[in-house]
Write a structure and sequence with these properties.
By secondary structure, the protein is an all-alpha fold. It is built from five helices and no strands. It binds protoporphyrin IX containing FE. Protoporphyrin IX containing FE (HEM) binds next to helix 1, helix 2, helix 3 and helix 5.
Length: 140
């Protein structure tokens, strides 16, 4: 069971952070080759598909992450591992908040969506830090 949940966690992380990297490195730069009307249509279509991917990833990461905390950390005394894990979870929730701000269909979030490249870049950097901390926790 622990192996299966770890697989779910890592796979969701690959889809989530990989999806953000794909948008930033491939899709958004390529969309600049289109005219404004086609670009708008493409971005709306991408956004409604990315919504389901990112929401599924968030649910899977939280459920599998909580299982991992229960399985590997619950009995561990407070110390460096817990501190790093706490930092990781706070950063992970910052990534989730950015993803939600970019995909929830609320008019109030339109200003965030207009600066999507900036927010996606921040989410990518935070996500990479989360993965670095996770790798360190695994080795330590
Ligand atoms: C941006 C979101 C997240 C990413 C990219 C991410 C990524 C990862 C990765 C790559 C691992 C290493 C797995 C392995 O080596 O087998 C891991 C482990 C882990 N994750 Fe996450 N994770 C995220 C969110 C969360 C959340 C929200 C929680 C808790 C609620 C969590 C709890 C854990 C725990 C407890 C481990 C095990 C660490 C260890 O091996 O000591 N993760 N995560």
């Amino acid at each position: 069971m622990a192996t299966f949940v770890q697989w779910v966690h890592v796979t969701a992380a690959v889809f989530g952070i990989g999806g953000i990297a794909f948008l930033l490195a491939v899709l958004l730069p390529s969309a600049r080759a289109l005219g404004p009307v086609e670009r708008g249509q493409l971005l709306r279509a991408v956004s409604s598909r990315f919504r389901w991917l990112s929401w599924s990833v968030i649910v899977l990461l939280i459920l599998s992450g909580l299982y991992n905390v229960r399985q590997f950390y619950w009995e561990v005394a407070w110390g460096r591992s817990w501190t790093l894990l706490t930092v990781k979870i706070v950063l992970a929730f910052a990534v989730f908040a950015i993803s939600l701000a970019l995909t929830l269909p609320f008019q109030a979030l339109e200003r965030v969506r207009q600066r999507r490249e900036k927010w996606l870049s921040i989410a990518l950097v935070l996500g990479l830090i989360v993965i670095l901390i996770s790798a360190y926790l695994r080795r330590g």
